[in-house]
């Protein structure tokens, strides 16, 4: 593996959501790098310190008839990993402390980690009561914003979009999805497996929006890459013909075994431009108007409203779920009432947990 991994920093924390989701390492903004071989040390509590709300109970504590299963403290860290193609990734990791379960820790891989890692890590911690401990690995980019359009436009796609408001993707080298799959399943998985004892039969993938489009491509072309998948608010509109070609190829193949399960989610308000969405575009335009190709903010909003009405987010997600069922994939479709493109993500992550962490699968 030629990919090189370097540590930005590490901290033992009880709440993974304390990691800022904009890409600042836990424990401060300093990012002194050290080789990956260096062991990140968790901070040991003082002998006189008050017990943490998330600390494991004392071995001498009196048992309680109503005690819930213990939820472990978690260690979160951010590392840098370079692909064989020379692309830099910021990898966010949240792992339970203590010994792994028999077979190793399940691993949940989350795309667009600059935006969604903190939320995914905290939801995974909460769900430990039902599903047991799991590692969350977020794949992000070395930027200080929530998203990196040019990078995700390269990693998640099979080519340029066929329509839509794409000025924020100007100059993107589209079509790197297959190379990105190789990075996930080879370089990244080997790096995580070298740091933790993981269950290689329980590796799941979560992608939102264009990441959801990518999830379908992985599932249709390399279904064995992960054991379970969630496509949240998938941007089918990007290029539905290419996904249709993936479907035809998948239908012609004889499956090597049981097809992995899939959850498809979408908010019922995703085909209209709400106030929160409009505010987002106004802030983006105010910060960098050149990114919108010279359009005024009113023109950007008008164009986006029209494109969202035509996007078919809800209709396409429901239709795609039906088509995946016909191909033999165990598929659940979930419509999240009144949620928009971003507010639907917390529910999508929570509803993914049983799928990802079902130990009996």
TrEMBL record:
Output the Gene3D superfamilies linked to this UniProt entry.
alpha/beta hydrolase
Q: Which UniProt keywords apply?
A: Hydrolase, Signal
Q: Where is the composition biased (Low complexity)?
A: 43-67
GO molecular function terms noted in the UniProt entry: hydrolase activity
Where do the segments described as Disordered lie? 43-70
Give the signal peptide, or none: 1-25
Which InterPro entries would you find in this protein's record? AB_hydrolase_fold (IPR029058), Esterase-like (IPR000801), Siderophore_Hydrolase_D (IPR052558)
- What is the name of the protein in this document? Alpha/beta hydrolase-fold protein
Q: What is the lineage of its organism?
A: Bacteria, Pseudomonadati, Pseudomonadota, Alphaproteobacteria, Sphingomonadales
